[in-house]
User: What shape does this take?
Amino acid sequence: MNRLRLLVFTFFFATVGFAQEKNEVEKRIKKSEVHEGAVDWLKDAYENKRKTKWYFQTDGDEEVYEAKLKHKKHLHSVEFNLEGEVQNVEVLIKEKEIDKEVHQNIINHLKNNYNKYSFSKIQKKYTGKEDDLEDMIDENEFEDITINYEIEYYGKSDSDDELWEGIFDENGIFLNKRVVKIKATDNLDY
Amino acid sequence: MKYFFFIAFAFSTIIAEAQNNRFIFGFFPEASLSYKISEDYSITHKIESQHGMFDSNRLNDELEYEHSLTDLQSFLGRRLSPFVKVDIGYQYRLEEGENTHRSIQQVSILQRESYFRIGHRIRIDQTFFKEEPLLFRARYRLKGQIPLQGQELDPGENYLAISNELIYMIQSSEDDLENRLTGAYGFYFDDKNKLEIGLDYRTDDYLVEDRFRHRLWFKFGYYKSL
Assistant: This one.
């Protein structure tokens, strides 16, 4: 009996140990753990927004800080590198908030490639230099800012049936996509 | 850890109310193993077992170990889309008195939200007995999975799993309702290995007079996929 128990435990911990190969991590951190430069930039751009949640993120290679906060009724995610320099700002928007022509181009792409599709999450991504991004937030100026749309959508074609993350440029022209891996549902199904 | 105490506290208040009726407490280990057999089809085997430790109906021996039952289940599942899966299953139950066979059909739907996800499960099952008539049950379960570190569940992180299931059952002309509320602390080792430890509070005999029953199970379940 004892030997059996030992075997079960060994098997259990061996699998768990093997499974600990971490690569993607996103965890909540305190403001005090973030580079001062990032905190200062956020304070200047958003003018003392109080409810900011800070995260540390890595995909195995790149490590970044991310600040999430509400601004003008939209959820903003601001990405900084470890030196505290702002990289980009992502704003969660609704489908109806996409400009008409841009929206039409995105829809055209989806219609041409899928029999069935639906949006699940739309983010407008602004990339640019620190000062330009700051002007964009506090002065509403969009000089030297690159705009992309990061759209998570379900798309079914004759060959594929997946959840995708597609990148579209500021005019709604398709750039690239990847499959969004959905986590196992065994604990929800059985 | 504080979440675990929260769950325990929430359940203890329910239990305090339950003293007048029949109350059972015990352990409920379960484990499941899932693997794909093709792009769309998968197989899942599950074993679960109830071990009673306390039964208020046993007057002088309330505290006594009793193997209540063990279920062996196998499912064949087909994924219809990334969010919808259908399964047919078979269960063999080992129980004192009579071992039973059960056929199961279910549809599970995944609802993804930005910070958590919800699994909807609609299931019907039929239990076959030697002497008694067929028992038919229809059930609906809602289970939420909420990450506790950040907004995404990453390997090595933990989560909270809360579920409620309502079961309607009918055997010849007698029918009844059962409710199952669970709260668990989950360990997400990675996408192929999960452990959930928590409490499963079951109440039944709602429609049977003077026989309301409460069962509280200390549950630990391991979910493994290949």
